[in-house]
């Protein structure tokens, strides 16, 4: 399986977006980004299957049938499990409300003597549909307003000279400038609203199909308590659980690597994954500019394709170090700062956590601005313009 997975399936899944862009003449950046996401999703699902680290219900043949696994593997969302196996460890990824729902459904199954091979996934309710619809509408309105403000300013709220791309050159003090951090915050908020709105549409569709997916975002910018809380529980839960099962757990269980080393390695792979997406977006931007038959343009496009500048990798390396420090010394720091944190509003605590990454977040968002990703998002939105 490893020869087929690493030698055939994963290379094909990573190369196919390049051919899709050419064959289908893709130009809209949202379609291109989703094509890249599908390819990496297939790659990580393949790694998960090869290493034998899918969710526990997939390994329980008494509760999981073939079609449950097909549904789990084919959907780009994490479905909430109805009948997880008993575990002595506390599952921090599920809320108390979900546990109560699981216990109630298990009691109903036992009363009605229902067969154990029924679907293991939680069934959605109309309340779930309404909640996701409301959040989606709120994201859509907020995204439209923020886009209307930023698009005339070319996605920078404050007009300042951005730090150069030498990363740690002579202008590194500009990374700590208030104007730079404010610009990065609003660009990060724009990116958050964009992907959260799209995923709320997907979650609503899954709800209407009768299933309850795990929430994609959990207010990461305004409710995070620590770097670990931000990346583990609040930001992009789908990718978090995907890379945790396909990479982090195999390193711990199969290779006997320490948690600290597994964390850093996982963040490094996440950085390479985002470099891959940035490279495809940059390449897609260049192939639709200039004459295709022009050799100079072709050389430029090849140079842009291969010019993986490393900003995404550095960004995730930095955040991996923050998570590692939180893992090693989070309790001591929390104890020392507890008197101050008790008096501080939760939103201020969260903004301080986010500010640890904001000085370098433009290493990711600038690629999206330069490839006109946000401009293509604006095409789909009602924009307020000055008459």
Walk me through what this model shows:
With 387 residues, the chain is mainly α. It is 67% helix and 0% strand. It has helices spanning 2-23, 29-51, 56-59, 66-74, 96-112, 126-150, 178-208, 220-223, 227-234, 237-253, 259-287, 295-306, 311-343, 346-355, 362-370, 373-379. Helix 11 (259-287) packs antiparallel against helix 12 and helix 11 runs parallel beside helix 15 (362-370). The longest helix has 33 residues, at 311-343. The protein starts with a helix and ends in an 8-residue tail after the last helix.
State the helicity in percent bands. 55-70%
Overall geometry comes to globular
Average pLDDT works out at 80
| Major beta sheet summary | none
The rounded Rg comes to 22 Å
- Give the uncertain stretches in residue-range form: 84-96, 109-117, 290-308
- What percentage of the residues does DSSP assign to strands (E)? under 5%
The overall strand count is 0
What's the N-to-C terminus distance?
Answer: 62 Å
Structural class: mainly alpha
Total of DSSP H or I helical runs spanning 4+ residues: 16
Q: Strand-and-helix sequence, N→C?
A: HHHHHHHHHHHHHHHH
Name the features.
single chain; 387 residues; mainly alpha; 67% helix
Break the fold down into its secondary structure elements and pairings.
Elements: H1 2-23, H2 29-51, H3 56-59, H4 66-74, H5 96-112, H6 126-150, H7 178-208, H8 220-223, H9 227-234, H10 237-253, H11 259-287, H12 295-306, H13 311-343, H14 346-355, H15 362-370, H16 373-379
């Amino acid at each position: 399986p490893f020869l087929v997975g690493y030698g055939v399936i994963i290379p094909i899944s990573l190369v196919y977006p390049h051919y899709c862009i050419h064959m289908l003449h893709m130009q809209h950046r949202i379609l291109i980004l989703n094509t890249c996401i599908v390819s990496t999703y297939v790659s990580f699902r393949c790694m998960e299957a090869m290493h034998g680290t899918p969710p526990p219900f997939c390994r329980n043949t008494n509760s999981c049938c073939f079609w449950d696994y097909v549904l789990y593997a084919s959907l780009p969302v994490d479905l909430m499990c109805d009948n997880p196996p008993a575990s002595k460890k506390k599952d921090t990824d599920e809320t108390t409300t979900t546990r109560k729902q699981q216990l109630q459904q298990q009691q109903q199954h036992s009363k009605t003597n229902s067969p154990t091979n029924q679907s293991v996934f939680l069934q959605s309710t109309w309340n779930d549909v309404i909640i996701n619809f409301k959040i989606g509408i709120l994201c859509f309105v907020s995204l439209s307003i923020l886009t209307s403000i930023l698009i005339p300013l070319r996605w920078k709220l404050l007009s300042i000279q951005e730090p150069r791309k030498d990363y740690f050159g002579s202008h590194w003090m500009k990374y700590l400038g208030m104007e730079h951090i404010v610009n990065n915050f609003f660009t990060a908020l724009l990116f958050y609203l964009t992907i959260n709105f799209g995923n709320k549409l997907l979650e609503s569709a899954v709800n209407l199909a009768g299933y309850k997916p795990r929430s994609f975002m959990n207010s990461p910018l305004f409710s995070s308590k620590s770097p670990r809380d931000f990346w583990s529980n609040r930001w992009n839960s789908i990718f978090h659980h995907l890379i945790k099962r396909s990479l982090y757990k195999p390193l711990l269980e199969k290779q006997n690597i320490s948690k600290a080393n597994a964390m850093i390695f996982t963040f490094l792979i996440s950085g390479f994954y985002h470099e891959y997406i940035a490279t495809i977006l940059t390449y897609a931007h260049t192939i639709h500019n200039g004459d295709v038959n022009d050799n100079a343009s072709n050389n430029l496009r090849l140079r842009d394709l291969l010019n993986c500048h490393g900003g995404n990798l550095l960004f995730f390396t930095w955040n991996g170090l923050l998570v590692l420090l939180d893992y090693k010394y989070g309790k001591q720091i929390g104890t020392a700062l507890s008197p101050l944190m008790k008096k501080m509003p939760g939103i201020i605590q969260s903004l301080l956590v986010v500010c640890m990454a904001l000085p370098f977040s433009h290493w990711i968002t600038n690629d999206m601005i330069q490839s006109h990703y946000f401009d293509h998002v604006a095409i789909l939105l009602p924009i307020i313009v000055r008459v």
